Amino acid sequence: MKHVDLKDIRQGKKYADKTVTVCGWVRTSRDSKNVAFAELNDGSELAHTQIVFEKSLFDDGVLAPMLALGAALSVTGKVVANTKGDCNEILASTAELLGGSDSTYPLQKKRHTMEFLRTIPHLRVRTNTFNAVFRVRSELSYAIHEFFHKNGYYYVHSPIITGSDCEGAGEVFKVTTVGFDPTVKTEEEYNKKDFFGRGAGLTVSGQLEGEVMATALGKIYTFGPTFRAENSNTPRHAAEFWQVEPEVAFADIDDIIVIATDMIKSIISHLLEKCAPELEFFDARFENGLIDKLKHVVGSDFARIDYTDAIEVLKKSGRTFVYPVEWGLDLQTEHERYLTDEYFKKPVFVVNYPRKIKSFYMKQNPDGKTVAATDLLVPGVGEIIGCSEREADHGKLLGEIQSRGMKLSDYANYLDLRKFGSVPHSGFGLGLERMLMYVTGMSNIRDVVEFSRTKDDLK
Ligand code: 4AD
Ligand code: MG
What we know:
With 459 residues, the chain is an alpha+beta fold. It is built from 14 helices and 17 strands. It has an 8-stranded mixed β-sheet. Helix 4 crosses helix 14. It is elongated and about 85 Å long. The protein binds 4-amino-1,4-dioxobutan-2-aminium adenosine-5'-monophosphate and magnesium ion. The site of magnesium ion has 3 residues, from strand 14.
């Protein structure tokens, strides 16, 4: 259909006083004696454009359905600029109802609870909030690609179906075509009957394949959906989420920390420039001071603390935490939040975690107790990046796989990388939704995914 995006009209002064055709959905409407107004939005921007209907030009029976909330219209008319030169009004000369709506349209009120909106994932994107969230999500994804391409990385596609559990946390969703079969007695037998003749699952991370690609292409990143059957029903965990995972050959833990910092700053700068109206909206509605926070992140250094020192900070905090604080135990959300929100008040890399609580592939430090791994924690959200230098020594990696009782045959190719031209290499995983929560101030992961998949919830 021939029409102009509302964003182009508002910004392009060339449209003032010109006749255009626009399309969109009615967000609000008002009917008075001689004129009626409809606020139209076509998704091209956060702002709405006011359509003015001179009642003398339209029959009542034609006009009334065009004022229904949620109706889709095509309108032709003259563009009117306001005193600031913004072209945010169109005087309709003709209009067509593309798709009607009625009083059962669920978005009748101005404001709805987030809980209610989650029950209508197919319509909530027509609210200002979700319209803004998903525009930022799109721009954020673009900014990630832009950062890596500008810096010489190759974008590689890691498989969704995999035979190994990268994180070793046993949170893999099974992929199977075999239904219930009472004759099958063992798991082995079951797997043999299955599609691949072996156990398979949805990937929890593209890292292991990313390492394969990085040890030939040098600098790569994967960016795609990952899946975890985590039983935790929290505002930060989704069963399906997107991860961007760079993997870099000839890079140690300090190098990768610099890369992660540059990436975060680069994508935030990009959003500050390209998503200003959306960020202003989130600042006003969801997190006061959001824009200042983001500018501060771009302009200042991130903190860095050893895990061992972080434990001391937490012990000396004078706080009573629900979960114990002890060297060797993982940091819980409440601990992460204390470090970021209260102690550092900015993003912090916690470095050198105990080996026992981290994944098998991480480089073992000379102390034998810790690994060259770091999590980037940010205020309000907690962990957004999991990062490490990878163990490049064949013997050490083999020992770790065996002592964790992992199936050696699943990791044979991975071990080969340490046999043939092994090099120091490092990488990280940034959770796209967690990053989106951080930059929008949205406090629940369910509200930054188009169609969220969490425990007991799939709509
Ligand atoms: O810390 P994680 O488990 O690290 C890895 O998967 C590594 N293989 C990454 C790598 O080195 N290539 O996960 C990385 C990030 C987390 O920091 C978090 O942002 C996000 O992925 N994440 C989740 N996001 C939403 N829901 C979940 N259930 C998540 N689990 C992890
Ligand atoms: Mg992690």
